[in-house]
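Example 4.3 (complexes with small molecules)
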Amino acid sequence: MTEKVLMKGNEALAEAALRAGCRHFFGYPITPQTEVAAYMAKRMPKISGTYLQAESEIAAINMVLGASAAGVRAMTSSSSPGISLKSEGLSYLAGCDLPAVVVNIQRGGPGLGGIRPSQSDYFQATRSGGHGDFHLIVLAPDTVQEMFDLTIEAFELADQYRMTAMILGDGMLGQVMEPVDISREGTVSTVAKQWALTGTKGTRKKNIINSLYLNEEELEMLNFKRFEKYAEVEKIARTEEYFIDDADVIVVAYGICARIAKNAIDEARKKGIKAGLIRPVTLWPFPKLQLKAAAAKAKAFIVVEMSMGQMIEDVELSIRCSRPVDLCNRTGGMVPTPDEVLAAIEKAARAERS
Amino acid sequence: MTIVFERPKALTDVPMHYCPGCTHGIIHRLVAEVLDELDLVEKAIGVAPVGCAVMNYDYFECDMAQAAHGRAPAVATGIKRANPANIVFTYQGDGDLAAIGTNETVHAAARGENITIIFVNNAIYGMTGGQMAPTTIPGQITQTSPYGRDTKTAGFPLKICEMLATLDGTAYAERVSADGVKNVVNAKKAIKKAFEYQMAGRGFSIVEVLSTCPTNWGLEPVEALGWLRQNLIPYYPLGVYKDKEASR
Amino acid sequence: MSTANEIVIAGFGGQGVLFAGKILVYAGLLAGKEVSWLPSYGPEMRGGTANINVIISDTPIGSPIITNPGMLVAMNQPSLEKFENDVQKNGLIIVDSSLISLKVKRTDIKTCYIPATKLAEDAELKGLANMVMVGKIAKELGIFDLDIVKKAASKSIPARKQDLLAPNIKAIEIGLAYC
Ligand SMILES: Cc1ncc(C[n+]2csc(CCOP(=O)(O)OP(=O)(O)O)c2C)c(N)n1
Ligand code: SF4
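Answer. The structure with iron/sulfur cluster bound is encoded below.
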C-alpha cells in the first residue's frame, strides 16, 4: 500500500492536474478555491510550467482556450461568481471543440452571495452555463480522494471527447483535509492533436480554431454532429450506490450531501427503515438509466442538495415522475445535517406505509 | 490638524471590520469628513466594491449600492446618468479597480463620466488572503507570487493615475498616501477637490490613496506604515497627475 | 460509530487551533484511523474566531461536519459560549482556564479546566497553548501514544522550521502530563 498524505481538497485537485500533465494554469483569486492557485503558483515555476494570474476570470478562460488551441492540457479554477464570468469562454470552447478542465468550488449565491459551501450552480453547470447548444462533462467528487482522481479523469475525458470537463465541488470539499493517495499518474492522451495550432511547418494544411459559421445549414450539421458525440458521452454516466438493493426509500445526493446522507442512512437502517443512496458521480451525463432502474423497486425518493431544488428536476425526469420525490435542502451556504436527512427519510417511509 | 474623535455625520456607528492598523478605516473617515463638509450626505450615492471594503454600504450614511467585482464604475455610471443631480462615488481596491475592473475604469474616465473614484492601493488582494495584485511591486512576495513578483512572468505594476492622466475625459487625478499626519491631511484635500470637481460638473475625478495591509503584508501596523513609505511611495510617487482646472 | 472522537477546537484566529487539529489528524492517520479536518474559513480579517472540526474514526467518515461534538476544546470565551450547548450528552469540554473565567454551565457532561496558556508561558513556550491542548486531547482520547503524536508533529511542521519541533513537543508533553 502506498502511503497516504493529508491534503486539502483544493490542493489534491491541483496536484492531480500536475500529475495529469497539465503545465498551464490560468487563475484569478476567489474564496473558497484560492488554494488551487496558491498551489500552482508554488509548483509551476519549479517544473517549467506556466502559472498565470489573469486580470479577470474572463481573461483566464480565454487563456485556457488559447493554450488548448495550441495543443496543451490547460486548466482554470474559480468559484461561483467567477464561473459566471467564464460562461462566455465555456461556450466558445464548445464551439471550437476544444478540451479544457474548469473547476467550480461552489459558494452561496446569487450575486456576490457568501463564501460558504453550496450546490446552487447545478443548473448552470449541467445546462452548460453559456449560450448555444452544448454540454460540459460535469464530475462531482465527494471526498478529497475523488477531488484527486476525478481531476485526472477530467483531463482524460476532455482530450478524448474534445470537451470541457468541469469539476463541480463546493467550499467544504475544497477546504476539508483528508488522507489521499496521490501515487497515480494521469495518462497523456495517445491521440495526437492534429487540429492544434502548432505552425504548419510546411508539412500540413493550415489549422483553424473557430466557432463562427454564418451558413446556417453548416452550423446545424455541426450541432447535429456534436450531439452525436454527446450521445456517445452519455454512456459514461456513473453512480456510487449504497444499500440500494432492498431500499424502499432512495436518497439521491452528490458531493458533500451524499456523505451527510450516508450518515443518515446508517441511522435509518438502525431504526429498521430500508433506506439507500444513489450518488451521481457524473452530473452531466446524468445517470438516468441507473435512477430509472432503481425506481422499479424503490417506493420513494428524496433529493438532498444545497440549493432551492435543482438536481431534483433531473431525478424526476429520469424516473418519469413514477415515484414521489421529496426535497431535503438547505441553501445560501447552509449545510443539511444528518438529522434533517434522517427526518426526511422517516417522513417518506411513513408516507409510503400509509 | 485638530484631531476630532467625534464621528463624522457621514459615517454610521456600525463598528468597522478592518484589521488593526489597516488604513482603510482612515480613508473611510476622510471621505466621510468631506461628505460632511460639502454637505453631501443627503445627496451622495456611493458604490461599494468587492474587496475588504465590500461592506462599506453599512459604514457610509448616504445611499449605497454594492457592485460586482470591478464593475463599480459602470454601476456608478448608470446611477449618475439616471440621477445626474446626485453626487456619485465609488470606493475600490486595486484588484477591483486595476485588474478585473480596468475596462470599466478606463472607459468611465475616457467618457469623462462625472463621477468620483476613491482608489485604495495596498499592492495586494486583501479580502481573499493576500494574492498578487496588479499593483504588487516587483519582488514583492504574496501568496500567488511566493518567490517574489517576477516581472518576466507576471509583468509590471499598473500606474493608474499616470495612465488615466493621458485620457482627455479625466478632469482630476491625484495620488496621495494614508500614512502620517501630513500625508493624511493632503489626502483629505485631494478627496475634497475630487468631489468639488464633480459638483462643478467637470468630469471624471480619481484619488489614488496608498494604503496598508498589515495582515497580508505580514507586518505589524507600525512596520506596515514604514514599508509603505520605503517601498510604495518610491514606486508610486505622490502628486497631482491631472488637473484640468489648473492647466486651463 | 463512536462519536467521542469528533472534536471541535475553537479560539481566536492566531491561537493555532487549525494547526493543533492538523497534528491530531496526522496522529490519527499514523495510527491507522480514518480522519478528516474541516476548518472554518473566511475573509482574512484579524481578530476573528477560528474553529476546526476533527474526526478520528475506525470506520469511513461520512460528513466531515460536526454538529454535536463529543469533545469541545474552548480556547476563548466566545467559543465556549457558542459551542457549549452543542456538545453531546456525556461529552467532554476542555477549557483554557487561564483565558476563560466563565464556568461550564452544563451538568450532563464532563468538564476539564486546564490553564494551557499559563502552563505554556511558565515553561517559556509562549504561544504554544495549542500544543498543550494537543497533549491534553491525546491523553483524553487515549488512542495514540506519545511517539505517534511526536511523529505527527514532525510531519506537520515544514522542513525549514524543524527547529520548532522540540518546543512543540515539550508543550505537548506538558498537556499529556497534566491531570
Ligand atoms: C468575479 C469575482 N472574482 C473574484 C472574486 C473574489 N474577490 C473578492 S475580493 C477580491 C480582491 C480584493 O482585492 P482588492 O480589490 O485589492 O481590495 P482589498 O481587499 O485589498 O481592499 C477578489 C478577487 C469575486 N468576489 N468575484
Ligand atoms: S486584510 Fe488587509 S486590507 Fe483587508 S482589512 Fe485587513 S489589513 Fe486591511
